[in-house]
Amino acid sequence: MTKYETEIFYIDSESLHDLESAIKKVTELEDGWINVEPAVDEDDQNEVPGFFAWFSARGPKVPVGTFVPGNKQNFASVGIAHGSGRGASDQLEELGIKPPESWISRQDHAKHGLVWEISPSHIVPSEVVSMILQGTVGLSTVPTTGGWTAILHCPPE
Known about the structure:
alpha+beta; seven-stranded antiparallel beta sheet; 4 helices; 25% helix
């Protein structure tokens, strides 16, 4: 079983290149993943406790964006787990947030979130960053405070 190293870093409009670099890194390694969550007040981070979350029809109120790189056999994926309910793609489109045309929509589910697949040859880190950052803020059901926390999981070098 592969062990992964974890790096946590903060993203704001001045440090988008850090997230782009992380996307490039896992893409080149063809292994690992990145989770990104918008910053919110501590009081707004509380979720429904474990057992009761199973009965909820929605995902997390603070969205989590995820990038998983592809490889020679699998597409890369961008996902956003959210609690904004049904039709999240339509909600994002109303906000002017659209995935690139080369992305393939694979899921738009109220509890399990949005998922797009990307051919590894079509990964543009700036497009991934834009969709994850705008999408997580656009689908947040609580006020965001600016910035994001990113967690990079990758195999040791």
